[in-house]
C-alpha cells in the first residue's frame, strides 16, 4: 500500500464514521421535530435526549477530523475545493453552527421551545444535503478552471439530475440509519411505545433509501462513465451492501435482533461507501486532481500516519468508555441513572 | 460597502470576524476546565460542598460556551481552506501535523467532557468523577498548544525549503518547534487561564455588589483571585519574554508597536500618544530605557528602528495602541488580583469593599479585550506577510467573487449566536439561583457580613 492509499483510507474511514454518527444525530433531530408536530413527542423524546446529549460534540469532531486531515494529507485539495466551495461550504458551516449551538441552548439552557426544535429538525435535513455537494462535484463537470481561476458552475449543479439524486439519497439514508439505530436503542431501553413508533419510521424509510441508491447508481453512469465502469468492477461490494440491507430490514420487520439489524445497516453503508470511494480513485476531483499529484511530502505523510496511530491508541479506549457508560449501560439507557 | 470589491480585503475582514469571535469562546474554553478542576478538587479536599457546587455550576455554563467554541472553531477550520486556499495549499505541507494533532486533542476533550457532564452522581467516590475532568483540561490545553504552534510557524516559518514557490525538504517537527513557539504557546495558554479566572471572578463580584452575602460567592471570588494573581504574574513574565523574542526574530513588529524610528540603545518605552504628519510622537508617556530592557534585559540593548526596514515590509503603525491596551490591562489585572489577595490576608481589612469589587467586575470584560488586542497586535503586526518572509497575505487569499456576501452572512450569524448565548446563560442562572440549588441539595447557605 502506498502512503497515498493509506492516507485516503484513513480519511475515508473517518468520513464513514461521520456518516453514521451524524446520520443518527441528524435524523433524530428530524424525528424529534416531526413527532412533536404529530403530538407523539412524549413517546420518543426521552430516548433521543438520553442518547444524544452526551455525544453531540463527538459527532462534530468526526467532521473536523476529516477536513483537517484532508488538507494535511492532500494540501492541493485546499486549492481546488477551497476556491470552488466558498458558498456551499459557508452555507454548510452556518447550518452546522446553528444546529450545534441551538442544540446546546435547547438542551442545557432554556425550556422546550418550538423554534429551537424546528431549527434542529430542519438543519438535520439541510446539512446532509449541503455537505453532499462535495461528493457531487468530485465527479467532474461542475467545475471550470479558466486562466487559473477555479469556479463552481452553479447552473450545471442545480440543473443536474445526478446532483439532486444525491441530495435525496442523502436525506433518505440519514432517516433510515437514524431510525434503525433509535429502534435498537429503544429496544434496549425496553420502551415499547417508542420502539413501535421508531420501528415504523425505520420500515418507512427502508425502501426509499435502497431505491434512491439504485437511481443514483444509474444517474452516475450518465454523469461520469469512467467512474461508473469501475463501480461495476466492484459489483460484489454493492451486492454485499444489498444483502445486508435486506436482512436488516427483515429483522426489523420481524421484530427481532434489532442490534444485529443496526450493525447490518452499518455494513450496508460501509460496503456501498467504500465501493464508491475505491472506484473513485485515483481521482480526488475528476479530472483535475488525483491522490498522487495532490499528495503531501513523504516526511509529512509518515508523521501524519504516526500521529494517527498514536491518536487512535488514545481514542479507542476513551470511546469505549463513552459507549460503555451511555450505550451499553442498561441502567443508564433505561433511564434509571 | 463603500470600497471596491477586493477578495483579499474581505477575506481578511471575515477571518478577523471569525477568529475574533472564536477566540473569546476558545480562550474561555481552555481556561474554564482548569478552574472547574481546581474547584472540584478543593471541594473534595476541604470536604466543602460550596466548592463542589461551584464546579457544578461553572460546568453547566461552560457547556453553552463550549458549544459556540466548537461551532465557530469548525467555521474557522473550514474557512482557512475557503478563504486562504493558496496559503493552505502551500502551508499544508508543513502545518498539517499540528492541525491533525489538534483534531485529536478535540476528540479526546469532547469524549471526556460528555462523560464528565453526565456522571456527576454516578460514582460513589467523588474522586473518580474528579479524575474525569483531568483529560478535559489536558485536551483543551493541548488544542491551544497545537493551534498556537501553527500561528508561531506563520510568524517564524522554518523546517522546509522553498524554491520557486515549491516546498521541499520538510521537517514537520522543526516547523512546529520554531523560535516563536515557546513564548507564543506559553503566553497564549497562561492568558487563557488568566481570562477564565477573571471572567468567573467578575460574576461572583457582581453578586457581591448586588448585596448577596452568601459564603458561596466569597469563596468563588477568593478562588478566582488567588489563581488570577498567579496567572497575572506569569502573564507579565512571559509577556516580557515575548518582547525579547520579538527583538530577536521580528524586530519590525516590536518597532511598530513602540513607534521606534531610529536604531539606538537606551530606547524609551512609549505609552499612548499619537503620531503627527512628520511621524513625530506627540503626547505620549515615555518610560526611559524601558524598551531596551523589554527587548534585551539591559538598558544598553540596541533596538532596531523602523527607518532601517524596507517600508514595503512594515506593518501598520496603529498596532501600537493594541499593544498598549494589552500591557495596560495586564498590569491592571495583576494589580487588582494582588490587591485582593493582600487585603484578604491582612487581618481586619475588608477585601470585599465596593471599589475593589468594581475593579474585579471590570476585569472580566477587560481580560477579553486584552486577548483581542493581543491577537490583533500579533497578527496585524506580522503584515504584510501571511507566512513571514515567504508569502504575502494578498498571495494567500481566495480569488472567489462572493466573499462580501459571505462576510455579511457570517456577521449576522455571530451577532445572533452572541446574543442568544448571553440570553440563554442569564436565563439559566436566574431561573436556578444558587440559593435555591443549595436548598435543594441540602447545603448550608452561610451568610457572612
Ligand atoms: C489577557 C490577555 C493578555 C494580557 C494581560 C497580556 N497579553 Fe500579551 N498577548 C496576549 C494576551 C495578553 C495574546 C492574545 O495571547 C497574544 C496574541 C498573540 C500571542 O501570541 O499572544 C499576546 C501577544 C503578545 C506579544 C506578541 C508576541 C508575538 O507576536 O509573537 C507580546 C510582546 C506580548 N503579548 C507582551 C505582553 C506583555 C509585556 C504583557 C504585560 C503584562 C502582556 N502581553 C499582557
Ligand atoms: C491556524 C493558525 C492561523 C492561521 C492560518 C491564521 C491566519 C490568519 C490570516 C490569513 C489572517 C489575515 C491576515 C490579516 O488580515 O491580518 C489572520 C488574521 C488574524 N488572525 Fe490569524 N491565523 C492563525 C491563528 C490565529 C489565532 C490562533 C488567532 C487568535 C485567536 C488569530 C487571530 C487573528 C486576528 C485577530 C486576525 C485579524 C488581523 C486583522 O485585523 O487583519 N490567528 N490570521
Ligand atoms: C489561541 C487560539 C485558539 C484557541 C485557544 C482555541 C481553542 C479552542 C477550543 C478550546 C475549542 C473548543 C473545543 C472543545 O471544547 O472541544 C476550539 C474549537 C475549535 N477550534 Fe479553536 N482555538 C484557537 C484558534 C483556532 C484557529 C485559528 C482555528 C483554525 C484552524 C481553530 C479551529 C478550531 C476547530 C476546528 C474547533 C472545533 C473543534 C470541535 O469540533 O470540537 N481554532 N478551539
UniProtKB/TrEMBL annotation, chain A:
<feature type="transmembrane region" description="Helical">
    <location>
        <begin position="198"/>
        <end position="219"/>
    </location>
</feature>
<dbReference type="Pfam" id="PF02322">
    <property type="entry name" value="Cyt_bd_oxida_II"/>
</dbReference>
<feature type="transmembrane region" description="Helical">
    <location>
        <begin position="260"/>
        <end position="279"/>
    </location>
</feature>
<keyword id="KW-0812">Transmembrane</keyword>
<feature type="transmembrane region" description="Helical">
    <location>
        <begin position="234"/>
        <end position="253"/>
    </location>
</feature>
<feature type="transmembrane region" description="Helical">
    <location>
        <begin position="162"/>
        <end position="186"/>
    </location>
</feature>
<feature type="transmembrane region" description="Helical">
    <location>
        <begin position="299"/>
        <end position="322"/>
    </location>
</feature>
<keyword id="KW-0472">Membrane</keyword>
<feature type="transmembrane region" description="Helical">
    <location>
        <begin position="80"/>
        <end position="98"/>
    </location>
</feature>
<dbReference type="InterPro" id="IPR003317">
    <property type="entry name" value="Cyt-d_oxidase_su2"/>
</dbReference>
<keyword id="KW-1133">Transmembrane helix</keyword>
<feature type="transmembrane region" description="Helical">
    <location>
        <begin position="118"/>
        <end position="142"/>
    </location>
</feature>
<keyword id="KW-1003">Cell membrane</keyword>
<feature type="transmembrane region" description="Helical">
    <location>
        <begin position="12"/>
        <end position="34"/>
    </location>
</feature>
<protein>
    <submittedName>
        <fullName>Cytochrome d ubiquinol oxidase subunit II</fullName>
    </submittedName>
</protein>
<feature type="transmembrane region" description="Helical">
    <location>
        <begin position="55"/>
        <end position="74"/>
    </location>
</feature>
<dbReference type="GO" id="GO:0005886">
    <property type="term" value="C:plasma membrane"/>
</dbReference>
<comment type="similarity">
    <text>Belongs to the cytochrome ubiquinol oxidase subunit 2 family.</text>
</comment>
Automatic annotation (TrEMBL), chain B:
<feature type="transmembrane region" description="Helical">
    <location>
        <begin position="62"/>
        <end position="83"/>
    </location>
</feature>
<feature type="transmembrane region" description="Helical">
    <location>
        <begin position="355"/>
        <end position="378"/>
    </location>
</feature>
<keyword id="KW-0813">Transport</keyword>
<dbReference type="GO" id="GO:0070069">
    <property type="term" value="C:cytochrome complex"/>
</dbReference>
<keyword id="KW-1003">Cell membrane</keyword>
<dbReference type="GO" id="GO:0009055">
    <property type="term" value="F:electron transfer activity"/>
</dbReference>
<dbReference type="GO" id="GO:0016682">
    <property type="term" value="F:oxidoreductase activity, acting on diphenols and related substances as donors, oxygen as acceptor"/>
</dbReference>
<dbReference type="GO" id="GO:0046872">
    <property type="term" value="F:metal ion binding"/>
</dbReference>
<feature type="transmembrane region" description="Helical">
    <location>
        <begin position="20"/>
        <end position="41"/>
    </location>
</feature>
<feature type="transmembrane region" description="Helical">
    <location>
        <begin position="220"/>
        <end position="239"/>
    </location>
</feature>
<protein>
    <submittedName>
        <fullName>Cytochrome ubiquinol oxidase subunit I</fullName>
    </submittedName>
</protein>
<dbReference type="GO" id="GO:0005886">
    <property type="term" value="C:plasma membrane"/>
</dbReference>
<keyword id="KW-0812">Transmembrane</keyword>
<feature type="transmembrane region" description="Helical">
    <location>
        <begin position="130"/>
        <end position="154"/>
    </location>
</feature>
<keyword id="KW-0408">Iron</keyword>
<dbReference type="InterPro" id="IPR002585">
    <property type="entry name" value="Cyt-d_ubiquinol_oxidase_su_1"/>
</dbReference>
<comment type="similarity">
    <text>Belongs to the cytochrome ubiquinol oxidase subunit 1 family.</text>
</comment>
<keyword id="KW-0349">Heme</keyword>
<dbReference type="Pfam" id="PF01654">
    <property type="entry name" value="Cyt_bd_oxida_I"/>
</dbReference>
<dbReference type="GO" id="GO:0019646">
    <property type="term" value="P:aerobic electron transport chain"/>
</dbReference>
<keyword id="KW-0479">Metal-binding</keyword>
<feature type="transmembrane region" description="Helical">
    <location>
        <begin position="185"/>
        <end position="208"/>
    </location>
</feature>
Amino acid at each position: 500500500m502506498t502512503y497515498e492509499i493509506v492516507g485516503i483510507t484513513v480519511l475515508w474511514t473517518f468520513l464513514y464514521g461521520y456518516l453514521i454518527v451524524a446520520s443518527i444525530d441528524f435524523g433524530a433531530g428530524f424525528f424529534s421535530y416531526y413527532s412533536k408536530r404529530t403530538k407523539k413527542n412524549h413517546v420518543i423524546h426521552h430516548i433521543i435526549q438520553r442518547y444524544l446529549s452526551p455525544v453531540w460534540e463527538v459527532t462534530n469532531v468526526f467532521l473536523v477530523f476529516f477536513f483537517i486531515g484532508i488538507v494535511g494529507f492532500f494540501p492541493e485539495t485546499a486549492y481546488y475545493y477551497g476556491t470552488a466551495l466558498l458558498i456551499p461550504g459557508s452555507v454548510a458551516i452556518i447550518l452546522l453552527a446553528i444546529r450545534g449551538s441551538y442544540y446546546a441552548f435547547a438542551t442545557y439552557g432554556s425550556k422546550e421551545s418550538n423554534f429551537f426544535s424546528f431549527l434542529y429538525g430542519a438543519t438535520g435535513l439541510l446539512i446532509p444535503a449541503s455537505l453532499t455537494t462535495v461528493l457531487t462535484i468530485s465527479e467532474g463537470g461542475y467545475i471550470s478552471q479558466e486562466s487559473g481561476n477555479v469556479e463552481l458552475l452553479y447552473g450545471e449543479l442545480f440543473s443536474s439530475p445526478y446532483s439532486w439524486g444525491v441530495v435525496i439519497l442523502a436525506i433518505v439514508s440519514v432517516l433510515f440509519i437514524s431510525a434503525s439505530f433509535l429502534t435498537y436503542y429503544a429496544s434496549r431501553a425496553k420502551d415499547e411505545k417508542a420502539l413501535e413508533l421508531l420501528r415504523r419510521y425505520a420500515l418507512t424509510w427502508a425502501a426509499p433509501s435502497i431505491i434512491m441508491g439504485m437511481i443514483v447508481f444509474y444517474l452516475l453512469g450518465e454523469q461520469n462513465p469512467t467512474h461508473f465502469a469501475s463501480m461495476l468492477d466492484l459489483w460484489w461490494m454493492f451486492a454485499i451492501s444489498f444483502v445486508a440491507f435486506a436482512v436488516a430490514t427483515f429483522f426489523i420487520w420481524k421484530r427481532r435482533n434489532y442490534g444485529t439489524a443496526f450493525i447490518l445497516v452499518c455494513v450496508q453503508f460501509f460496503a456501498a461507501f467504500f465501493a464508491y470511494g475505491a472506484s473513485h480513485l485515483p481521482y480526488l476531483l475528476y479530472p483535475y486532481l488525483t491522490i498522487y499529484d495532490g499528495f503531501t511530502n513523504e516526511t509529512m505523510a509518515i508523521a501524519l500516519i504516526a500521529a494517527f496511530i498514536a491518536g487512535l491508541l488514545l481514542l479507542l479506549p476513551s470511546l469505549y468508555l463513552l459507549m460503555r457508560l451511555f450505550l451499553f449501560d442498561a441502567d443508564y439507557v433505561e433511564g434509571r441513572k | 460597502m463603500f470600497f471596491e470589491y477586493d477578495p483579499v480585503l474581505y477575506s481578511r475582514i471575515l477571518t478577523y470576524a471569525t477568529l475574533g469571535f472564536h477566540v473569546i469562546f476558545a480562550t474561555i474554553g481552555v481556561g474554564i476546565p482548569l478552574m472547574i478542576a481546581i474547584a472540584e478538587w478543593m471541594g473534595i479536599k476541604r470536604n466543602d460542598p460550596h466548592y463542589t457546587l461551584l464546579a457544578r455550576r461553572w460546568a453547566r455554563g461552560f457547556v453553552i460556551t463550549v458549544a459556540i467554541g466548537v461551532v465557530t472553531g469548525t467555521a474557522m477550520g473550514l474557512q482557512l481552506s475557503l478563504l486562504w486556499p493558496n496559503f493552505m495549499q502551500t502551508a499544508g505541507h508543513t502545518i498539517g501535523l499540528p492541525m491533525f494533532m489538534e483534531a485529536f486533542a478535540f476528540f479526546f476533550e469532547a469524549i471526556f467532557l460528555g462523560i464528565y457532564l453526565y456522571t456527576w452522581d454516578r460514582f460513589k467516590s467523588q474522586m473518580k468523577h474528579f479524575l474525569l475532568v483531568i483529560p478535559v483540561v489536558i485536551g483543551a490545553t493541548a488544542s491551544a498548544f497545537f493551534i498556537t504552534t501553527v500561528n508561531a510557524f506563520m510568524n517564524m516559518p522554518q523546517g522546509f525549503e522553498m524554491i520557486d514557490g515549491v516546498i521541499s525538504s520538510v521537517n514537520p517537527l522543526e516547523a512546529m518547534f520554531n523560535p516563536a513557539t515557546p513564548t507564543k504557546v506559553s503566553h497564549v495558554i497562561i492568558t487563557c487561564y488568566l481570562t477564565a479566572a477573571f471572567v468567573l471572578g467578575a460574576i461572583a463580584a457582581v453578586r457581591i455588589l448586588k448585596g448577596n452575602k452568601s459564603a458561596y460567592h466569597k469563596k468563588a471570588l477568593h478562588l478566582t483571585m488567588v489563581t488570577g494573581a498567579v496567572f497575572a504574574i506569569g502573564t507579565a513574565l512571559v509577556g516580557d519574554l515575548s518582547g525579547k523574542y520579538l527583538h530577536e526574530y521580528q524586530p519590525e513588529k516590536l518597532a511598530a508597536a513602540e513607534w521606534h524610528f531610529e536604531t539606538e540603545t537606551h530606547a524609551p518605552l512609549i505609552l499612548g500618544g499619537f503620531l503627527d504628519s512628520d511621524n513625530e510622537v506627540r503626547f505620549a508617556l515615555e518610560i526611559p530605557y524601558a524598551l531596551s530592557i523589554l527587548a534585551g534585559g539591559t538598558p544598553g540593548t540596541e533596538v532596531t528602528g523602523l527607518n532601517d526596514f524596507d517600508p514595503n515590509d512594515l506593518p501598520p503603525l496603529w498596532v501600537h495602541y493594541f499593544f498598549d491596551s494589552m500591557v495596560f490591562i495586564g498590569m491592571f489585572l495583576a494589580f487588582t488580583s494582588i490587591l485582593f489577595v493582600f487585603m484578604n490576608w491582612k487581618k481586619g481589612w475588608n477585601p470585599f469593599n465596593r471599589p475593589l469589587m468594581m475593579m474585579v467586575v471590570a476585569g472580566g470584560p477587560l481580560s477579553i479585550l486584552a486577548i483581542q488586542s493581543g491577537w490583533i497586535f500579533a497578527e496585524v503586526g506580522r503584515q504584510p506577510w501571511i507566512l513571514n518572509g515567504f508569502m504575502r497575505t494578498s498571495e494567500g487569499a481566495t480569488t472567489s467573487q462572493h466573499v462580501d456576501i459571505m462576510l455579511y452572512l457570517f456577521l449576522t450569524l455571530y451577532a445572533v449566536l452572541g446574543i442568544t448565548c448571553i440570553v440563554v446563560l442569564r436565563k439559566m442562572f436566574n431561573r436556578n439561583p444558587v440559593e435555591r440549588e443549595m436548598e435543594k441539595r441540602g447545603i448550608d447557605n452561610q451568610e457572612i457580613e
